[in-house]
Amino acid sequence: MFIDTHAHLTFPEYKIDLAEVISRAKHANLEAIINIALDEQALSESLKLAEENPGYIYNAYGLHPQDASTWQESIAHKIRALAKEKKIVAIGETGLDFYYKLSPVEKQAEVFRQFLHLAQELDLPAVIHSRDAARETMRILHEENRGKLKGVFHCFSGDLDLAGEALDLGFLISFTGNITFPKADKIRESAKMIPLDRIMIETDCPFLAPQDYRGKRNEPAYVVNVAEKIAEIRNLSVEEVAMNTAKNARKLFNL
Q1: Is the pLDDT of residue 158 over 90?
Q2: How far apart are the first and last CA of the chain?
Q3: Which of 139, 194, 131, 142 is nearest to 167 (CA)?
């Protein structure tokens, strides 16, 4: 059984056929999906989705770093309320994105620190987004670590040095469909070397469809392709990869 640890099922790409998408996920032997909500409307839809699929779809709530300029203190209040009601299993995604810099880097850093404070206050894992900002991301994580920091570097595309630093901080590493891309040797090297008990798998759907579906909308069922590639890299069975990554996800998100 597989767990997609990072999906965006409330995105417009799924408006027409979401029920079929979820059905295909179940048919592909997914046992759970962590759905990431990035604004209030998405959160409302995600909470409804979880109610309709109890024990199958779980919620996380955060703010993409590109949207850091939209931060309001009400977000923190909402997260505290959701955590108290056990309606979220993680905080995020959150982090730094210096690729587009749609929000000023200073604001991204400020909001990132706010989310890290919340994660530790509420004893929830943080889902970390880091793009073209590896050193700055690690610096802030070290500075804000109060001994209770935990979480995952989602959609990992860094090198082994970055992975090692993240692991030393107690974080897990999650791989997505880009591990199947022809030029993704650096990502595959990390997936080969990181201990199996520190790895998770995800789709980040609707983005980053695996190579077999390149250019098409991604969906949770395709997380199987990520597991298959990791199995190939590590000379393991797909079942072993599925079992271990699902176990890691259940432990981190307290499923």
Answers
A1: no
A2: 14
A3: 194
pLDDT value for 101: 84
What number is the average pLDDT over the span 182-197?
95
Residues in the chain: 255
CATH code of 2-253, in short, is: 3.20.20.140
Per-residue pLDDT at 88: 98
User: DSSP letter at 211?
Assistant: G
3-state helix, strand, coil split of the chain in percent (to 5) is 50, 15, 30
Query: pTM to 2 decimals?
Result: 0.97
182 three-state secondary structure: coil
**CB neighbours of residue 182 within 10 Å:** 7
Side by side, the strands of the sheet bearing 199-201 are 2-7, 30-37, 57-61, 90-97, 126-131, 151-153, 172-175, 199-201
Residue type, 171: F
What single-letter amino acid sits at 14? Y
DSSP H helices, 123-237, are: 134-144, 160-168, 185-193, 223-234
Say what the pLDDT of residue 186 is.
Answer: 93
Contact 21, 14 (CB under 8 A): yes
Q: Using one digit for the tens of pLDDT, what is the confidence trace for 59-115?
A: 999 999 999 999 999 999 999 999 999 999 999 999 999 998 889 999 999 999 999
Output the six-digit token pair for 154: 């989602």
Q: What are the residue ranges spanned by the domains of the chain?
A: 2-253
| 59: three-class secondary structure by DSSP | strand
Residue 250: what are its φ and ψ, rounded to 5°? -60, -40
- For residue 4, the Cα-to-chain-centroid distance in whole angstroms is 9
